[in-house]
Amino acid sequence: MKPQPKPGAWTFFRQWLKNPLRVAAVAPSSAELAAAMIAELPDDARRVIELGGGTGAITRALLDAGIRDEDLLVLELNEELHAHLQVRFPRVPVLLGDARMLPSLAREQGYLGGGPADAVVSGLGLLTMPHPLQRDIIAAAFQCLRPDGVFVQFTYGPAAPVADAVARQLSLRVRRGEFVLRNVPPATVYVYSRESVP
């Protein structure tokens, strides 16, 4: 008997078929990629924002790593994936919205009342976005981060996910993290932080 795809994987693939540019991959992130993302969090990270929650592979890994439900904020633009995440993680704040609006969405939800996030992890397809859109999303994320917080992003292919010009404009430094072969497609983790911390 042929194995059936998991419900989350099927939901994700269906959304990719509808809009392959907005849903950047054909399959959810692997456990290995999620682990590589979490390995880049600050040692004292307690409060995390996830951009592009998808089917929840990284969300699940963050919770398993000890991030409390109320200290995790997930943002998803796709309505069907948002609904899936709300059902899968009923105690986690899961917002439907555009990552460029993250500061106002996080404030309205009450998340930033507990202080800035220690890290933002992103599954967004930044590499395919125009530079102004990249800049707006990254700038919005850093508005929600503590001064020495990190923005952790994975990408496919050899190029860094954020254009050099955008990183320079926002005064960010970048470090390449782990290459994860066991993902579809293989992915590389990148970590962005502010050039100077006040």
TrEMBL record:
<keyword id="KW-0808">Transferase</keyword>
<feature type="domain" description="Methyltransferase">
    <location>
        <begin position="48"/>
        <end position="149"/>
    </location>
</feature>
<dbReference type="Pfam" id="PF13649">
    <property type="entry name" value="Methyltransf_25"/>
</dbReference>
<dbReference type="GO" id="GO:0008168">
    <property type="term" value="F:methyltransferase activity"/>
</dbReference>
<dbReference type="InterPro" id="IPR029063">
    <property type="entry name" value="SAM-dependent_MTases_sf"/>
</dbReference>
<dbReference type="InterPro" id="IPR041698">
    <property type="entry name" value="Methyltransf_25"/>
</dbReference>
<protein>
    <submittedName>
        <fullName>Methyltransferase domain-containing protein</fullName>
    </submittedName>
</protein>
<dbReference type="GO" id="GO:0032259">
    <property type="term" value="P:methylation"/>
</dbReference>
<keyword id="KW-0489">Methyltransferase</keyword>
